[in-house]
Amino acid sequence: MTGAEGIEPGTHFWMPESGQAEFTLIFEPIPENTASIDLKEPGDDGWKLWGIDLTGNADNLSVHPDMPADIAKNDAPFFYQPIFQTGETTVNIHFLGYNPEMGSQAAYYINSFSGVDSDVLPLKIGTDGTCPPLRFHQDGSAMLKVISIGSDVNVKGASWIAPGDSLDLYIDCRASGNTLVNSRDGSSAKMALPFADNGKYAALNRLASFYDSPDLHLQFYSGKFGSSGMSGDEYTDFAIAEYRKLLDNIAARNMPAEAAEIFTNNAAAELLTAIARHKSILTYDYMQEHPDADYRVAAESIKTSLSPANYAAVAKLVDLDNPRLFMADGMASIGSLANSCWEEAGVGSRQINDYMLYLEMAQKASEGKLSQQDADRLRAECATPFYAESAGRINHVQLEKMAKLDADLITATPDVPADQVFDAIVAPHKGKVVMVDLWNTWCGPCRNALKIIEPQKSGELASDDIVWIYIANETSPLTKYLELLPGIKGTHYRVGSDVWESICDRFNVDGIPFYILVDHEGNATGRPDLRDHSKFKKVLLEEAAKCN
Fold first, then answer.
1. How many other C-beta atoms can be found within 10 angstroms of the C-beta atom of residue 474?
2. Average pLDDT, the chain
3. How does pLDDT run across 172-186, given as a tens digit for each residue?
4. Distance CA 394, CA 42 (A)
5. 55 neighbors 35 (Cβ within 8 angstroms)
6. Is 53 helix (H, G, I), strand (E, B) or coil?
7. Quick one: which of 450, 497, 448, 451 has its CA closest to 472?
8. Nearest-CA neighbor of 426 among 546, 485, 507, 534?
9. In angstroms, how far apart are the furthest CA atoms of the chain?
């Protein structure tokens, strides 16, 4: 860059209140035959735009030239049913339009019948954009979502995967970026497929991606879905009316019958979500109406209460035993299906009851605590043998892993009422500075912070006056938790939900990682500001100096 007009190079530029700004950047002449350029600002937080087209021939609907022809054509038969089986799955992931400057690792997670598996190793990306084969054991149909490259590049690559399948997944970085921009802008303009695959669900994935747009979904968290002042009947009528409008939108769109089938099923699941999660949806609405409200008080301000008749009205519109509900909306709505509210309202189903029992037993299995009685109950009560097989497999794997790990690294939670546990944990260390770190294994920022802080414990933060205490809750899978503990110096507690909620309420925890600093006199203060790690070190050293 040789100059600029309307902006000062080398300084931070803040967007004005209008939300619009215009300026000119001046560069050296670009050779006439240049097809594309990269625009990169210096520094980790600078803008980086790769592959800016200069030919004028770019077509947002064009398939990437490196996409294999057989996958681009994608004439596989349309298959849209959950598969209740287990199997070893292999996915070969390829990033098209990849630049090594984007980063050498990709983050992903897997939505499965037993829950979200975010405790997965990052994908390593070769210089050609190809990752080593991703292999995992799969329980039932699952949704694989690739979400980012490096720390700054968001991508959109979501694919239904069949258990035991072996497939190639191609993610077009440019098309993915365009799709993400459109989704933020609320645009329904068509783009090239951000991803394509050759697995059993290839046709389903292609249709769901190509025809998807914001107007084909209920907009729960828009601040306009209902009102926190509605009665139960009013809110139910509103949700049903929005659902019917959504069905009209789907019918009016020029899409194949198979695609309409996908979004119609999504709509049914979203209606269930509107009812099962009405408190959280209306809490968000309340926060939009009262931006200065305390988010912990907001839930108590929601007066809407649904009656059994409200649940029954919705259940008449949706087949609660439709197995495709398991695959609706990329499995985002599965929690609404596995909600006790339906049974409590007297409108449950065999499918819901079986699935809720499975989730209960899968949680036990994830701790290696599935008993023979539990397994027998799954076999006796569930219509499909898959649930018993899956829970048994999970339990077996966890027991094998736990046999190789040291459970003694976990300190027993003090046997006192939940609201007294925190004080009991820190009381023995009065006279020293106690750094309490609230974290969980599935929290990426938590684990990144641990990587930054851990080396400092034997460096600048090496002090007998500093005590390190780590508190996680039972959402951290036990085996993954035990695998990580040897690398984290300190005392570790894995507490139940009642203790966790008590600590969060007491210190107004707004997310994790969250730090609680206890000074040498025993005064405990929540310090979310210490997420700034330069401040973390400075404050801790200052407090430790007061111990002498």
1. 17
2. 88
3. 888 887 777 766 666
4. 47
5. yes
6. strand
7. 497
8. 507
9. 76
DSSP 61: T
Q: Per mean pLDDT, which range of 99-113, 323-337, 422-436 is the poorest?
A: 323-337
* % of the chain beyond a pLDDT of 90: 54
Q: What is the DSSP letter of 410?
A: B
The DSSP bridge pattern shows strands 153-161 and 36-40 to be: unpaired
pLDDT at 295 (0 to 100)? 55
The continuous run of DSSP H or E covering 382 comes out as none
**Comparing C-alpha atoms, which of 178, 287, 170, 139 is closest to residue 225?**
287
Q: What is the rounded distance in angstroms from the CA atom of residue 398 to the CA atom of residue 394? A: 6
Q: Two tokens at 511? A: 């997310």
Q: What is the 3-state secondary structure (H, E, C) of 177-239?
A: HHHHHHHHHCCCCCCCCCEEECCCCHHHHHHHHHHCCHHHCCCHHHCCCCCCCCCHHHHHHHH
Indicate the pLDDT class of residue 39, thresholds 50, 70 and 90.
Answer: confident
Q: How many residues does the chain have?
A: 548
Which residue, chain included where needed, has tokens 């999660």? Answer: 277
Residue 330: Cβ within 10 Å count: 16
Check pLDDT > 80 for residue 504. Answer: yes
CA distance 531 to 513: 8
Q: What CA–CA distance (Å, rounded) separates 515 from 532?
A: 11
Q: What are phi and psi of 135, to 5 degrees?
A: -120, 135
Question: What gap in Å lies between CA 41 and CA 387, rounded to an integer?
Answer: 52
Other CB atoms within 10 A of residue 251 CB: 11
Residue 171 in contact with residue 157, Cβ under 8 Å?
Answer: yes
Using CA atoms, how far residue 202 sits from 67, 143, 275, 315, 323, in Å, is 14, 12, 32, 31, 19
User: Would you call 149 helix, strand, or coil by DSSP?
Assistant: strand
Is residue 142 within 8 Å of 167, Cβ to Cβ?
no
> Does residue 429 carry a pLDDT above 70?
yes
**153-185: b or e for each residue (b if 16 or more CB lie within 10 Å)?**
bebbbbbbbbbebebbbbbbbbbbbbbeebeee
CA proximity to 436, closest of 462, 402, 464, 471? 471
Calpha distance 506→524 (Å, rounded) = 10
Element (H, E) at 489: none
Tokens representing 194 are: 């951000």
φ, ψ dihedrals at 156, nearest 5° = -125, 105
d(CA 157, CA 206): 11
Dihedral class, residue 106 (left if φ above 0, else alpha if ψ from -120 to 50, else beta): beta
Distance (Å, whole) CA 176 – CA 160 = 17
DSSP count for the chain of H helices, then E strands? 18, 18
CA-CA distance, 399 to 86, in Å (whole number)?
19
Q: Residue 224: what pLDDT? A: 83
Dihedral pair phi/psi, residue 275, rounded to 5°:
-85, -50
CA distance 486 to 409: 8
SS3 378: helix
- Which residues on neighbouring strands pair with residue 438, listed in sequence order? 471, 514
